[in-house]
């Protein structure tokens, strides 16, 4: 696998932020205003003349849709943001940062940025410490570039320069951008909210805006130049602010998001000593809309809670709201996340159908798009009847804070929902289900239907957090035969809480149905990646047994890490060390959280992936403080070593058959070998859908690991990790990539990325398996160029700050 350039490892002894402190998200409002001339580089902005409120036409020259449920107040919000922007600058002039605050010569750049952000890939600037939380930043942007932003649905203020709350640069802070076309400037400042202000984004009170607040450190990044061109090395500046708003309690650690077997999200974290309770947030951001919201979900004294244990704050269960009833909970389940989908695919189709029928009351989302589109009703109607996930679905994060006795919040710990979007149910696809049900009369014999109708009738249609309609084959194995002329079956919808009734003429009709459905499933896209959360270690820590990079005796496994920190952890886990001292890396203020490091190490090292197992039963993790040291505690199952060694033996056996003279042909040989030796494990995949991953992994323990080589069968994770392990041994530069597939049952998926003649190329050995040989439809396409494949951009498979050097995510 590819390795980062060697980096020095300074003896870092300062008291930096501890692991798991860097987690949260951001928001912004793109504005076009008239302001005085600005300096051409990133600078501190001092008071200037108030800016007039821009007109809708000035703001947007091409449609950018807004969230349906806030359209009624969007004009007020824009006005408020502008008012806050101006007032903050005028009120807080006396708190502008001094030169001493802005350029502390005592801080060594290498020490601040650590091994996560290196000069090889970033233009690292001198850090700024203890600046005022009202600090503003500006840069020069040409009027032509500003016009380009106005016409784009994908480029906004943060595409030029942004502030992030984590060192992997995946979670922007809450900021506001102001484009000034006349004077060719872009201005940015923080717009954080105070404790418990659940609707402060609507408030006209300037005290509701705390500037930059809520995080121990920030990373300012300039991505583009004044003409809108991407910088070869983005410019990064680390800074901290004077922030007295946080409670004197620790940040919650080990935040875990997991989708349970009924499709409901569970949120868990470690108990915080001295905390009165905890506050849950959902952060949502949509780059096309250029808008961010922070919604408080609930206050709780628990450390593990399901989304159906509380309801939307507007109805019940939130701050100052009535307690949720059983009916409230059962009707909404993941309903508090519903606002991330402003319009679903099912909703758009329903809207289109109702308009085509010229109904008096069209069933459309409550978008008031005509005004936003300059009075163009035809254009507004067009976008109302089309589902565009980039415009209609927000990025989302779950956040948790600890509360003190006065209900003040700690720093926020947050985790992205992106890897789970295609598994979190937000409701049934009502219009689609009704449309399909209307095609066939109840009791019509299954054998009389054509194949297309059978396939549609065998499924139940559900809307997930990605906004798509997911088609899920029903499990009708529970016979509820009653005194009736028909046989009635109660069918479960796997991965959801839904059930449905199906009627068959007789037992023979039902068996014909079952056999046909089993055949249909074999023709569906082959995915099945398990999104398993890290399991916490519970045993006592042992004596430090970790060794430095290159001294762990595991080179035969080709250990990989996109940074020295990740590789160090990967090497020590491959050596099965149990107490890994990570202080040298974790002490840097720009160190990623340990869970991010471990996730990449597991995903990019096939033997670690196999050792851990899809059920996460093979390895457990915890990061603990031992005096002035940070220690990663790892517990290994008894069979972890066996899993590693048996996969290595199989990989080396397979590698002997790869003998092509060039890299591209070696890729094709590996794909052909896997196709000839193995087949997709539909039984394991079906069990994961019908029974859940826990039971499926118990029944098929190697189908998510080395099964393709060891058992001749496996799901996508097995194909990808086996490909990666073989590729490493034959001299290829190889990675695994995680994302989701654009299908009617979109699921998480894993494929591979290899470097061919200096260019990153994607290849999918699972989808290329055509039987006894590999096809070429998904073979060696440019990175992020595989049809129907979307790469996760927020991490999981690799630190987000490293992705650009390894082909990126396509965003």
From TrEMBL:
Residues 25-37 have a biased composition (Polar residues). Keywords: Membrane, Transmembrane, Transmembrane helix. Residues 708-767 form the Transglutaminase-like domain. Residues 10-24 have a biased composition (Low complexity). The chain crosses the membrane at residues 67-90. InterPro entries: Papain-like_cys_pep_sf (IPR038765), Transglutaminase-like (IPR002931). The keyword Lipoprotein does not apply. Residues 1-41 are annotated as: Disordered. This is Transglutaminase-like domain-containing protein. It comes from Bifidobacterium castoris. The lineage of its organism: Bacteria, Bacillati, Actinomycetota, Actinomycetes, Bifidobacteriales.
